[in-house]
Design goal:
This protein has 178 residues and is an alpha+beta fold. The chain has a single domain (4-165), classed as 2-Layer Sandwich (Alpha-Beta Plaits), CATH 3.30.70. It has six helices and four strands; from the N terminus they run αβαββααβαα. A four-stranded antiparallel β-sheet has the order 2-3-1-4, sandwiched between helices. Helix 2 (32-49) packs antiparallel against helix 3. The radius of gyration is 16 Å and the shape is globular. The chain starts with a helix and ends in a 13-residue tail after the last helix.
Length: 178
């Protein structure tokens, strides 16, 4: 159940955290092309829909996003739909039958368009209403590639906002002053 406080945070431009997992933990983002699709969608949403990004992480089977925007829930629904469409199309073009077959095993046949399904059901949108919570979410985002053993320093992980916070150019425009 979403509280009134959570609903108003999602409607206003307060920071919110989301975590989206790929169906069956399928490593669709192990190729650079699907990762590029996601970052392009975010960039377009920043320019055209007013999405503000404070932090992000893209791993092989999940996405973390710390962002804000008017009607954040609507923005995230757009992201999920558009990223599913583009990433699945990209996998078809790459002819990665192994990943596509794995995804098909987990797609819900009851959906109106099961072939357009990429993400597990969405978890809650978490409003981030305090500075210490913002710091904790960013720390989690930036340290996850280190904890998983991919890199020894989060700045070294390409699909993460840690570079922006270290004063280096990153893949996306990140708002670091919050």
């Amino acid at each position: 159940m979403t509280s009134h406080r959570q609903k108003s945070a999602m409607k206003a431009a307060h920071p919110c955290f989301v975590s989206y997992n790929v169906l069956g933990a399928t490593p669709v983002f192990s190729h650079p092309e699907p990762c590029q699709k996601v970052t392009d969608i975010w960039r377009q949403m920043q320019q055209q829909k007013g999405l503000t990004i404070y932090g992000f992480l893209l791993l092989e089977d999940l996405v973390y996003l710390l962002g804000a925007g008017d009607d954040f829930a609507l923005l995230m629904r757009h992201f999920r739909e558009e990223s599913a469409r583009q990433v699945l199309q990209c996998l078809e073009q790459l002819d990665d039958q192994g990943l596509l077959k794995r995804l098909r095993r987990f797609q819900d046949k009851q959906q109106s368009d099961p072939a357009a399904q990429l993400w597990q059901p969405a978890g809650p949108i978490e409003p981030v209403l305090r500075q210490e919570m913002m710091r904790a979410k960013l720390e989690m985002i930036h340290q996850t590639p280190v904890k998983r053993g991919y890199v020894t320093d989060p700045v070294l992980y390409r699909y993460c906002s840690a570079r922006n916070y270290a004063g280096q150019p990153g893949l996306l425009q990140i708002t670091t002053d919050w």
